[in-house]
Write a structure and sequence with these properties.
Length: 169
């Protein structure tokens, strides 16, 4: 288990183009387990592949189970994400083609995703290890110049070099 830190932290400013990718699956016909299980088992091999091939561009990811399955992932860029999605030697494209051929538009299992290129952002993590964006791009303790959400959001509008210079004042 990761040791928790008692300090309040904020995420480092991510590099230009860092991308948040949310993808999920929704079971619409629970009594058709062959349909949704066949889709559900496709995601772990993709994540394992991406963890073994860091050069593909995924920085960090987490999978959540609840009313639907959700994967939250951070990427170096949207272009890295698109390149992985279209890579015939990676596990995504064959899985997507199987889904499209067998299950798309059959109302048994739904797939969704949202892609966000990170711009202005504000984060805080207290009493826990780095999570989400902080896990993906790094973190630092919150100092007096970032004590409020408004200040952290304003700091995200500057470049990392400008933020360091401001921090030194």
């Amino acid at each position: 288990m990761v040791q928790t830190e008692a300090t309040r932290m904020t995420a480092e400013s991510p590099s230009q183009g860092t991308t948040l990718f949310l993808i999920g699956m929704r079971v619409t016909r629970p009594w058709r387990p062959l349909s949704w299980l066949s889709v559900m088992i496709e995601m772990p091999p993709m994540l394992w592949h991406l963890r073994r091939h860091r050069d593909a561009g995924m920085l960090a990811s987490r999978m959540y189970f609840g009313g639907s399955i959700l994967v939250v992932s951070y990427w170096r860029s949207g272009e890295d994400l698109r390149r992985f999605a279209a890579d015939t030697s990676a596990p995504h494209l064959p899985a997507w083609r199987r889904y499209s051929k067998r299950l798309a538009d059959r109302n048994r299992v739904g797939i969704w995703h949202e892609t966000y290129v990170i711009g202005e952002h504000e984060t805080i993590y207290a009493g826990m290890p780095p999570w989400g964006l902080a896990e993906a791009v790094g973190h630092r303790p919150i100092g007096p110049t970032q004590a409020t959400a408004q200040r952290r959001l304003a700091a995200s509008r500057t470049t990392p070099a400008q933020a360091d210079a401001h921090q030194a004042l």
